[in-house]
Amino acid sequence: MTISQLKKEDELECLQRVINSGKKLRGKTKQIVKMLDGEDIYREDNERPDFVRLLPAKSKKQKDMIIGIEHFRVDHLSVKKKDGNIASTGIVFRKEIGGVYDRWHSVVKEEDTISEKAIEDMMKTISNQVLRVKQANYHTFLESFKYSLNKHLKNVDAYKKNLSKIDEEKTNLVFLIEVHTEFTNLYLSNKKRTKKNVSGFMPLFRDVVDLLESIDKKVLDYIVLCLGGTIHDENVEILAFHTGDIEKQCERQHIPIYEYAGVDCLLTDFQFMNNDIQSEQSFSINDEKIDMEFKYSQKTISDEQKLDLLFFAIARAYYAKKNNLNYVTTNGVLYYLDVFGDAIIGWENPEGETESWKIRPIQQRIDPQIIFERTKEFEERWKLDEDVSYLS
Q1: Model pTM score
Q2: At what angle do helices 206-213 and 138-153 cross, to 10 degrees?
Q3: Extents of the domains making up the chain
Q4: Are the CB atoms for 21 and 36 separated by under 8 Å?
Q5: Alpha carbons within 13 A on the beta-carbon side of 99
Q6: pLDDT digits over 323-359, tens only?
Q7: Cβ–Cβ contacts within 10 Å for residue 345, how many?
Q8: Half-sphere exposure of 100 (CA within 13 A, CB side)
Q9: pLDDT, tens digit, for every residue of 264-285?
Q10: How far, in Å, CA of 260 to CA of 263, rounded?
Q11: 3-class state of residue 391 by DSSP
């Protein structure tokens, strides 16, 4: 199978996954997804957009609708190449897993034990993925999203020209955006509660809504987001909108929009708190149990720099909470708000500080015993290790 055939197979798999999710959807998202499930119109290979479907008219007074679907992928785990292009490393992980399977599945089936080389191969794949996650940040994801979106918006005229060859009047263009993220480090907060983002799926960030709002509705008709982890399976989340007024549509569909207030919120794209990360792996076999151990070392920014970033993020989350806004954050920010939040009475720049963003909270004194009890409760609630770092 050629690379283009594999790509087309992946695109079709994503489209079918979205359509299969239709029964679980409701409201406007369900209506839009239903439009994608039409009769496929055959065209020459590699003609854009990726898919064209015929949606039959519901009555004699209506016309059949031609739906053009352009698929593209956005990855949280990405790198910027020397030429400025952004490439997905999530795809690399998928290939690595496939490679491990191809090399070892038949061997493992034939033998009673798993060879040390097979274990080392698996551990190397796991370690590589952990390194990618450690070197991903929020703005890297945003830049990846913006890059892929703008790249495809530039080709809209070509998509529409090809659709007009089929029908000059009743055509609609849809962007099907396959979003792969590993946001398992985030906590989602609204007026009622806070929960861990266990799935790692992308919460609908305010910054992403702003990106989608910027699309001219004369250029594009619909946007469908297929949200999942680095490797998508049937467990995905689907969001769909017509272009324009995305925020109002979210309100009608009861989709929460989140302000981002993680500790890395001031970092730029492809700027990291941790660099030059090295890993060591070891394992032991006890009867039928395999214990794997991973150790990581890294160069990191100073504690003072971390505190500057942390307190800026705390102020951002504090503001969102005070104004009843949904927000997402990281464990250090959440910890400070939970333990010290009710003692904060204002914000100030440290004496002699000239950069306005470097702020510290002004707060009332809290009894050390209360701090201890709140800290213990926080760590038990979120099942955190005793050596957890609240600065990263």
Answers
A1: 0.85
A2: 10
A3: 3-76+137-257, 90-136+276-299, 303-382
A4: no
A5: 12
A6: 999 999 999 999 999 999 999 999 999 888 888 899 9
A7: 9
A8: 18
A9: 988 766 555 555 666 777 878 8
A10: 9
A11: coil
